[in-house]
Amino acid sequence: MNKMIIFSAPSGAGKSTIIDHLLHCGFKLEFSISATTRAPRGIEKDGVEYYFLSVEEFEKRIANHEFVEYEEVYEGRYYGTLHSELERIWLKGNVVLFDVDVVGAINLKKKFNRQALTLFIQPPSVEELRRRLISRSTDSADEIEKRVAKAEHELTYASQFDKIIVNDNLSEACSKAKAVINEFLLS
62 to each of 47, 96, 108, 112, 124, how far by Cα in Å? Predict the structure, then answer.
């Protein structure tokens, strides 16, 4: 059975760090590359960071049922996962790895059921999350408060995930994630 692992977490919970660790654990995980209608930033390349599509092309693919899931985040700004992307990864014998928002994760789980494992990386507290975001020194105070408010909303979805991993100790969180994934892949 082709499998997928779906991660979601509030900004600052440590999800990317945990995923980076897991990519070097021998699981044959491969990131799903999303399609988007936004323009490439900096040195981003089509087919590497994203598949960059025009709004017209994206909407044509929606009409042709080529997406596993998609969302119009802002008017004319779409993001989604193509069926062909999953097939590309599965044909190589790899496990699809998703890093998506909570709604996307829940929708993918509904669609793929036992083929999918959903993992929610949770900060130990909202206060700790705020502290982590401040220590990054990458966002304004206003932006941090927006991220914290969004995180509080995202935390309400945690119970809908297969596993919740509280990241209060990075090493332990990585070990827990590795064990959960190993169990899922062997099932």
Answer: 19, 21, 16, 19, 39
Backbone φ, ψ for residue 153 (5° rounding): -65, -45
DSSP state letter for 150: H
- pLDDT tens per residue, range 11-29: 889 898 999 999 999 999 9
Please, what CATH class does the domain formed by 1-28+94-187 belong to? alpha beta
> What is the model's pTM?
0.86
Segment 27-76, tens digit of pLDDT: 999 999 999 999 999 999 999 999 999 999 999 999 999 999 888 878 88
E-assigned strands of the chain? 4-8, 29-31, 35-36, 51-52, 67-74, 77-82, 95-99, 116-122, 163-166
For the chain, give every residue range classified as CATH 3.40.50.300. 1-28+94-187
CB atoms within 10 A of CB 108: 23
